[in-house]
């Protein structure tokens, strides 16, 4: 039965999925930021073709999805010292500065590819898998609409959706009975706990030291744990939460402690005293240009502009249309934890219910001992498949 499950085509998981909205790699960081705001998306696909061109030549050229961009990318970019000094210039930078060189975070597959092929790509590091939508007929009128720069979903005369790790793990959870007894086995017996790739800071560490860790956690699809003096987990700085925030959070990253940053990005908006503290420290550090950048946006007068209460789809992040899961949950800075003896299925349910792609592993005293990710779960399922072959 396991073999028949993994022989299913990826198109089986694409039913009802909307086409991805996109940007051209020729866009700027500022244009990406504007599109993220305007379209209400928490991430956008980035394609190699130039969407501003309407010629037949541009349509006939092979167009590939080369990456994705989200608010976390923009915030980490703006949070760099040189960009805090001149945010206007930073926004004029080409979008490609936000796409890691040699990135394989987004991969293409044909609709008839097998589920096991998709899992293999995930184990190679893919976050999103781009699949052509088969059943939609592209009429001339619809084609004109889809070529709109503000809502482009058409490439190579086709529309595409993308699968995320969350999509595939939900699919496996629905068939979890086929993977007994490993599904009920403790994670420490399945070698599913990663004890090496742990990103962590202590509460009083400067949040600026978290900037490279946030970028790294985005690639790893994890988070940055915040520890007390006894290495107990007391919270986290999560890209999931940061992705719902305003780009001015870059200033908080540059000026606050890790503990204060947790409070700043917590859903519900930052406390007024922390907002003022950030502004005071921007002045002290002579980042007046970024202070003006913050104050130019009138929406900052509303706490809700800093952090929405929408939950994002796994790090494919389709808050409204990325993958069909539109539950509205509140993401806070509280870390989601399990124990070494927790079962695999329990950890799967825990991660999916909280809309995260990882769960921290702690000992009975709360000290951090590792992390379980979607990728490590997929590795367990892949090994099970091989044993059944």
Can you walk through the features of this model?
The protein is built from 17 helices and 13 strands. The protein has helices at residues 2-6, 29-39, 56-60, 71-78, 81-85, 87-91, 115-123, 140-146, 165-173, 211-220, 239-242, 249-255, 258-265, 272-284, 288-296, 344-353, 374-388, and strands at residues 22-24, 43-47, 65-70, 106-108, 128-132, 154-155, 158-164, 200-202, 224-227, 233-237, 337-338, 358-362, 368-373. Helix 9 crosses helix 16. The longest helix has 15 residues, at 374-388. The N and C termini lie close together (11 Å).
Protein topology:
Layout lengths: L1 H5 L15 E3 L4 H11 L3 E5 L8 H5 L4 E6 H8 L2 H5 L1 H5 L14 E3 L6 H9 L4 E5 L7 H7 L7 E2 L2 E7 H9 L26 E3 L8 H10 L3 E4 L5 E5 L1 H4 L6 H7 L2 H8 L6 H13 L3 H9 L40 E2 L5 H10 L4 E5 L5 E6 H15 L1
Parallel strand pairs: 1-2, 4-5, 8-9, 11-12
Antiparallel strand pairs: 2-3, 5-7, 6-7, 9-10, 12-13
Helix pairs in contact: 7-17, 9-16
Which tags fit this structure?
389 residues, alpha/beta, 14% strand, four-stranded mixed sheet, 36% helix, three-stranded mixed sheet, single chain, 17 helices, flat
Seen as an oligomer or otherwise, the chain set is: single chain
Which class best fits the helix and strand makeup? Answer: alpha/beta
> Which regions are unreliable across 5 or more consecutive residues at pLDDT < 50?
53-60, 139-143, 145-150, 298-306, 308-331
The total count of helices amounts to 17
Q: β content, as a range?
A: 5-15%
Report the order of strands and helices: HEHEHEHHHEHEHEEHEHEEHHHHHEHEEH
Enumerate the strands of the largest sheet in spatial order, edge to edge or round the barrel. Answer: 4-5-7-6
Largest β sheet strand count, sense and barrel closure? 4 strands, mixed
The tally of beta strands, per DSSP, is 13
InterPro entries: AMPK_gamma/SDS23_families, CBS_dom, CBS_dom_sf
Organism: Prunus mume
Domain CBS: 330-387
Protein name: CBS domain-containing protein CBSX5-like
């Amino acid at each position: 039965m396991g073999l028949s499950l993994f022989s299913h085509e990826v198109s089986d998981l694409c039913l009802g999925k909307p086409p991805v909205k996109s940007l051209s790699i020729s866009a700027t960081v500022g244009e990406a930021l504007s599109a993220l705001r305007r379209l209400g998306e928490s991430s956008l696909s980035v394609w190699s073709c130039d969407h501003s061109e309407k010629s037949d030549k541009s349509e006939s050229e092979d167009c590939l999805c080369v990456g994705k961009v989200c608010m976390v990318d923009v915030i980490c970019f703006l949070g760099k010292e040189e960009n805090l000094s001149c945010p206007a210039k930073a926004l004029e930078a080409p979008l490609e500065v936000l796409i890691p060189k040699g990135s394989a975070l987004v991969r293409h597959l044909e609709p008839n590819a097998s589920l096991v092929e998709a899992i293999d790509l995930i184990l190679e590091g893919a976050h999103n898998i781009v699949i052509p939508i088969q059943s939609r007929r592209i009429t001339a009128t619809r084609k004109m609409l889809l070529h709109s720069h503000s809502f482009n979903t058409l490439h190579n005369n086709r529309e595409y959706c993308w699968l995320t790790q969350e999509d595939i793990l939900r699919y496996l959870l629905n068939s979890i009975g086929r993977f007994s007894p490993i599904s009920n086995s403790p994670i420490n017996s399945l070698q599913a706990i990663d004890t090496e790739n742990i990103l962590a800071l202590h509460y009083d560490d400067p949040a600026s030291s978290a900037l490279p860790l946030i970028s790294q956690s985005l690639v790893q699809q994890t988070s940055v744990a915040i520890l007390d003096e006894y290495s107990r987990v007391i919270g986290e700085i999560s890209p999931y939460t940061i992705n719902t925030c305003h780009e001015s959070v870059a200033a908080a990253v540059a000026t606050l402690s890790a503990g204060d940053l947790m409070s700043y990005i917590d859903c519900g908006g930052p406390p007024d005293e922390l907002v003022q503290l950030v502004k005071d420290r921007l002045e002290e550090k002579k980042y007046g240009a970024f202070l003006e950048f913050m104050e130019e946006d009138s929406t900052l007068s509303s706490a809700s502009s800093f952090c929405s209460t929408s939950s994002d789809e796994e790090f494919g992040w389709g808050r409204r249309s990325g993958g069909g899961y539109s539950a509205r949950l509140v993401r806070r800075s509280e870390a989601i934890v399990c124990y070494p003896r927790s079962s695999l299925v329990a950890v799967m349910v825990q991660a999916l219910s909280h809309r995260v792609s990882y769960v921290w592993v702690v000992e009975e005293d709360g000290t951090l001992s590792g992390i379980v990710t979607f990728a490590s779960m997929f590795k367990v399922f892949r090994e099970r498949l091989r044993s059944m072959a």
